[in-house]
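Subject: design request, 144 residues
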């Protein structure tokens, strides 16, 4: 670890989110000083990199399942989420369905979040989510 105690490393997640195989310009997460910063995830099929169509509840669940895998690979989990930033294509039509799916994953441990309406690059994606979480020291030893 460099002087000052700052350690930064990039995280790759299995074959499904492999930057080299899939051509992503970013890795799914960066870890620094015990924090995990994910990039914005859309509801993709991790084998084909194609966005999976569906209603907002389905797409939100898909994104959170992928984020769970990313966080696990980084030595964390959804339960260690500190904050989520959520981008919805249509906040008026999709907020209630998004909220229902999101709250299912965080029912026992609500997290602060920011939800905004945004243009999402894929015309099929209705949601994109980015998370900041703490690493789990017990799991970190197994990840590195």
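Subject: RE: design request

Done. Sequence follows.
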């Amino acid at each position: 670890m460099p002087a000052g105690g700052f350690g930064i490393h990039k995280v790759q997640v299995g074959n499904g989110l492999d930057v080299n195989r899939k051509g992503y310009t970013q890795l799914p997460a960066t870890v620094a000083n015990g924090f995990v910063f994910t990039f914005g995830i859309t509801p993709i099929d991790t084998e084909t990199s194609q966005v999976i169509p569906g209603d907002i509840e389905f797409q939100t669940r898909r994104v959170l399942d992928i984020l769970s895998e990313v966080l696990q690979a980084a030595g964390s989990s959804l339960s260690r989420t500190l904050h989520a930033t959520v981008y919805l294509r249509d906040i008026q039509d999709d907020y209630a369905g998004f909220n229902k799916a999101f709250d299912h994953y965080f029912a026992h441990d609500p997290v602060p979040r920011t939800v905004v309406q945004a243009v999402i690059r894929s015309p099929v994606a209705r949601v994109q989510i980015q998370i900041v979480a703490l690493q789990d020291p017990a799991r970190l030893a197994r990840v590195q």
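Residues 1-6, 18-25 have pLDDT under 50 and may be disordered.
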